[in-house]
Design goal:
Length: 280
């Protein structure tokens, strides 16, 4: 994918917010100019840009001569692979609303890896009873690790994530970090009673989305995907859409109440201050 850096939007020390024009859309991205240009959400580096403290568009032209004419570079999208026994649960959500929009714009691509394909024997077995007894079945290590390795073969630098009660609580700050890093993701969806603990040697990050129990890891996987993808440049409609929402400082902030038409609904009126134009 080829895109053009069109113009400076605003500038900070060592960082510049620029308007990036892709073949079929435009987006605002943050460029880290400490040593090279880094575009969060594309994981691509543009070599040849020296360290600089830029204070204006003219300053950037001194660093990159001919910048105004357009600087071309090759970018790639974020690749997200989900390992699951039930792709039919995940795929409809990935192909709807904002997640579909992100893929349609080339910002992200999704694929589901069916764990059953890596099952053992003629029945493609993926689970077995736990050592020490107890109810339920555990996902076997062989199919899971083989599936992870297959995903990593497609994306060697991908971060492998496991939704699990043992993980750290997933917060908005985690979503922002994952989105800013722009690193490809592989998300493993546990099922049944859980998984053989030895697979955690192939896991980079473990997250818990809350203190409750679900049937499988598909819903947590979609929570992580949704929360990350919507933060990638160009996905949401407004430039500041992701900056004025609830939980931007994790548990410290909740977005203010909002209203739309009609002005009077069953005797419930929109606050007067929102009707006067004085919204401070």
């Amino acid at each position: 994918m080829v895109c053009w850096l069109e113009f400076i939007h605003s500038v900070y020390p060592h960082r510049a917010a620029v308007h990036v024009v892709f073949p079929n859309h435009a987006a605002y991205c943050v460029l880290d100019l400490t040593s090279q240009v880094f575009i969060p959400g594309t994981s691509e580096l543009v070599p040849g840009v020296p360290s600089a403290r830029l204070s204006s568009r003219a300053a950037l032209n001194r660093v990159i001569p001919g910048y105004v004419a357009g600087m071309c570079y090759t970018a790639r999208n974020m690749k997200i692979q989900i390992i699951t026994l039930f792709p039919e649960v995940v795929e409809p959500y990935l192909h709807a609303s904002m997640l579909w929009k992100a893929q349609d714009k080339g910002i992200v691509s999704y694929s589901c890896i069916n764990l059953r394909q890596f099952g053992l024997g003629p029945r493609r077995q993926v689970d077995d009873t736990p050592y020490g007894g107890g109810d339920g079945m555990l996902l076997k290590p062989e199919p899971l690790v083989t599936a992870i390795e297959a995903a990593k073969a497609q994306s060697p630098q991908a971060l492998v994530i496991l939704p699990t009660p043992r993980g750290e609580l997933y917060r908005q700050s985690d979503a922002k970090q994952l989105a800013a890093a722009g690193q490809d993701l592989v998300i493993v969806c546990p099922r049944y009673e859980g998984y053989d603990e030895r697979i955690t040697n192939w896991i980079d990050k473990q997250y818990c989305i809350g203190n409750y129990v679900l049937t499988g890891g598909e819903l947590p996987a979609m929570v992580i995907v949704d929360s990350v993808v919507r933060l990638l440049p160009g996905v949401l409609g407004g430039e500041m859409s992701a900056h004025i929402e609830s939980f931007q400082d994790d548990d410290q902030s909740i977005e203010f109440p909002q209203y739309t038409r009609p002005e009077n609904f069953h005797g419930l009126k929109v606050p007067e201050v929102l009707l006067t134009g004085n919204h401070g």
